[in-house]
């Protein structure tokens, strides 16, 4: 008989060797994850548009490709911010992309390979799960929520990507727990004070996601920003780092920034014109592919335009 404890030990050791962390819980908990989402929806704490666009993605039905689902594996992989450089009007403009945006498939494939190398030889299967990873990470004890509703893992802060998988590996006792906020948040209001849109408040724990910059700059590129969103609040090519950059839990990791591509003035102009990947020159398309940016290409004309205007307005004031 296979020693399950040995398999779990190998799982944790394999992750630790790469600087990753993970947890395993019973797959029976999926219904509880769904209840966590639906409870807030029923209480009308989610903006309807946010709920339809961001939370309808999840699938809580059984995975048909597994004969029986016993467990859920959730893994946290450290990930940096990325700097993307644009040349515009003979100036170099460096813009950040926060963690969790790039290389999603690469991370998921790598974690699945790790799990399969451990579980397949023992007769167990692994299937990707489309469920709320953040809630699962906190419920499993892998992470804790910040007041900004972003999740944090010890030693990683919020600079990591989550990947989750179903398996027919049986687990009898798991670490399921109540949703928890970091102790650091109890007497800290840094994220509240640094969120320009008022998305984070002291009146309730749940984020006002409909006011979050990230929610708006992830919309399809043809959707304009709401009039109340001041252009000066934008700070990333996609996503937002206002609350993460002041969070004490990110003190050790916030300056972890890897270099992304550099686009010439002509390339920047073509991106601003909204050209798709087939219309762009081969070298430009290659940069976008190599750095996993194609998914966000349609957002760049709108987001980049407002950031370039903001940057030159700031420089003009500085020269007065």
What count of structural domains?
1
Mean pLDDT: 88
* Arrangement of strands in the largest sheet: 1-2-8-5
pLDDT < 50 runs, ≥5 residues: 41-45, 316-320
- Briefly note the structural class of the backbone: alpha+beta
Strand runs, count: 9
Q: Helical stretch count?
A: 11
Spatial gap, N to C terminus = 77 Å
SS strand fraction: 15-25%
Helix content: 25-40%
Shape: globular
The main pleated sheet reads as:
4 strands, antiparallel
Task: Please sum up the structure shown.
The chain has 320 residues and is an alpha+beta fold. The chain has helices spanning 4-16, 30-42, 48-55, 104-119, 133-140, 190-194, 213-217, 242-245, 265-272, 282-290, 300-318; strands spanning 21-26, 71-78, 81-88, 91-97, 126-128, 144-145, 151-152, 160-167, 257-263. Helix 1 packs antiparallel against helix 4 (104-119).
Give your account of this protein's structure.
Helix content is 34%, strand content 16%. The chain is built from eleven helices and nine strands. The strands form three sheets. Strands 1-2-8-5 form a four-stranded antiparallel sheet, with helices on both faces. Strands 4-3-9 form a three-stranded mixed sheet. It has a two-stranded antiparallel ribbon with strand order 6-7. A hairpin with a 5-residue loop joins strand 6 and strand 7. Helix 1 packs antiparallel against helix 4. The C terminus is likely disordered.
């Amino acid at each position: 008989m296979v020693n399950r404890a040995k398999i779990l030990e190998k799982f944790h050791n394999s992750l630790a060797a790469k600087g990753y962390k993970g947890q395993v819980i019973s797959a029976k908990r999926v219904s509880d994850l769904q209840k966590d989402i639906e409870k807030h929806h029923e209480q009308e704490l989610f903006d309807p548009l946010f709920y339809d666009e961001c939370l309808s993605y999840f699938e809580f039905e059984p995975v048909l490709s597994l004969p029986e689902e016993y467990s859920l594996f959730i893994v946290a992989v450290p990930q940096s911010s990325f700097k993307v450089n644009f040349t515009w009007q003979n100036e170099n403009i460096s813009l950040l992309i926060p963690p969790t945006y790039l290389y999603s498939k690469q991370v998921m494939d790598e974690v699945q390979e790790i799990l399969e190398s451990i579980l397949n030889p023992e007769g167990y299967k692994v299937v990707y799960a489309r469920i709320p990873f953040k809630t699962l990470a906190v419920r499993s004890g892998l992470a804790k929520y910040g007041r900004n509703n972003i999740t944090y893992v010890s030693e990683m802060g919020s600079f990591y990507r989550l990947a989750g998988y179903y398996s027919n590996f049986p687990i009898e006792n798991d670490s399921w727990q109540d949703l928890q906020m970091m102790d650091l948040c109890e007497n800290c209001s840094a994220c509240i004070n640094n969120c320009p849109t008022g998305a984070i408040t002291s009146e309730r724990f749940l984020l006002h996601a409909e006011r979050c910059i990230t929610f708006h700059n992830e919309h399809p590129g043809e959707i304009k920003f709401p009039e109340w969103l001041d252009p000066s609040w934008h700070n990333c090519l996609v996503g937002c780092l206002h609350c993460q950059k002041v969070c004490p839990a990110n003190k050790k990791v916030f300056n972890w920034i890897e270099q992304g591509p550099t686009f010439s003035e002509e390339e920047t102009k073509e991106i601003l014109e909204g050209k798709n990947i087939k219309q762009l020159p081969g070298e430009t398309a290659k940069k976008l592919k190599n750095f996993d940016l194609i998914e966000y290409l349609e957002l760049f004309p709108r987001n980049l335009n407002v950031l370039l205007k903001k940057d030159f307005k700031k420089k003009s004031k500085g020269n007065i």
